[in-house]
């Protein structure tokens, strides 16, 4: 291949496809209010259905994947604290020791497995036949597509064979939902450190401190807390593992002469992909990168320079510059 296209959600939006995260928020509000309410209550995301929503609040949904690292797990625990086992209660049963933890498991399932399943269903509702002809662009021959989207826009609207497309986060599928969707924050950042004893304790004071901590330990609460903390690992988009699983692609791009980035935000959550692309590509490769606004143009330029790409090798364009001529 001589040309490598990198496709982001702005590519689908250019084609008038309703794939914005804000649209997914509306889909959730209508189809799975339980998951939607969890996102509103524990992530600081605004109610997309609020007619008084400000532009700033509306824009918060555009960083949906980054927001998946913002789970307020302490509030989740507090809101379900009525499930803490109370062995002194008359109606206490042994199974009550695990009720709190089980509720955390169910919440995690809603915020991971069920959320991704809903997103898969949302993507499958895309109607490619509604793409206007005047939105189609010219695509270069002898090219391959690194696709960050989950849609089939390239196949449906451009007839690109699937073997020329690498779906880095998988493709929406009616039979087998395997989409990769998640935050990019290292889960180790959320590990709680064990409390250290105060400095300067005598042997007797240290023993008393340990006894006090043992008395304060609540199995029901601690098991529930460890369960909800596991969310950050379950919801993590492990880019290192994804890159390893697609290493054949990344080692096949050494002959690429030009990279064309269309509709990708080049945001932090996907930055590691661009780092390995830069490492594998020839340093003389030309990067043509689309932008939507002047602010995005500036941010893209700064990011590309920080990746070590030469300023003279960067061309900034708009997708509309590539539209097919009538």
Features:
326 residues; alpha/beta; six-stranded parallel beta sheet; 15 helices; 6 strands
Walk me through the structure.
- Helix 14 (271-280) links the parallel strand 4 and strand 5 (286-290).
- This protein has 15 helices and six strands.
- It has 326 residues and is an alpha/beta fold.
- Helix 7 (99-124) runs parallel beside helix 10 (219-229).
- The protein has helices at residues 9-14, 21-31, 33-43, 55-60, 64-67, 73-79, 99-124, 153-158, 203-216, 219-229, 231-234, 239-245, 247-250, 271-280, 294-306; strands at residues 3-7, 143-147, 165-167, 258-262, 286-290, 314-317.
Tell me the total number of β-strands. 6
Estimate the mean pLDDT confidence. 92
Separate helix tally: 15
Structural class: alpha/beta
Query: What is the overall shape?
Result: globular
Oligomer: single chain
Distance between the termini: 28 Å
Output the helix-strand order.
EHHHHHHHEHEHHHHHEHEHE
Rg of Cα set: 24 Å
How much helix is in the residues?
40-55%
- Percentage of residues in strands: 5-15%
What strand order characterises the main sheet? 3-2-1-4-5-6
Low-confidence stretches: none
